[in-house]
Amino acid sequence: MLNIGDTIYLDLDDDQEGGKQRFKCRLVDRVREYLFIDYPINDKTKKVAFFHDGTEFSASFNGKDQAVYLFQTQILGRKKAKIPMLVIKDPGLEKYIRIQRRQHVRVEATIDVAVHPKNSEFAPFVSVTADISGGGIALVLPKIHNIPVGKEITCWLCLHMQTGEIKYITVDCHVIRIISTKDSPREKASLQFTEINENDRQIIVRYCFERQLYIRKKGIAE
Fold first, then answer.
1. What is the tens place of the pLDDT at every residue in 5-25?
2. Contact residues for 177 (Cβ-Cβ < 8 A; gap 6+)
3. Would residue 170 count as lying in a domain?
């Protein structure tokens, strides 16, 4: 699964900033459940980072099958060789979370959205999402609305990433249908992204990965 030379991303909770820091390292060697990595580089400052034994991370890597794999790990120690290395724990395949890139994983998330019409069919409004994926969103609608099913609208999304960054994304959406449920007083609109920058889509996909991992960790903690 993980091969020598593969890049591993390590995400660390940042108590001071209230977000996450991301570090990038390379798998140098492995022995059974022990992974030997070179010293991580801070993705933002590009400086080498130093950590105490026991530091816990959320790790991820890109598989050869075009999927992203997520797992929890911690620093177990260090090893001196031709290059200095850290030793982290591989929890095993059964503990990996596999995300298929070609599939858009939908996660529950409340994201601020500004909604505008293409041709003045309705007054612009601000709302939130009920869920999101790399392919679209479920938009919570005002009690009184005139959203045109089958038409195009424009949405501005405000994504709070776990690194602490805020990403603003503009995307054109096709209104697929309006959804009413007994357990909610507000209707929802199912929207499919039509015109979206591919870099922006990857930001949304990464947000979904982080959100799914957060929900999983929260469930384990509870």
1. 999 989 887 655 545 788 999
2. 149, 189, 190
3. yes
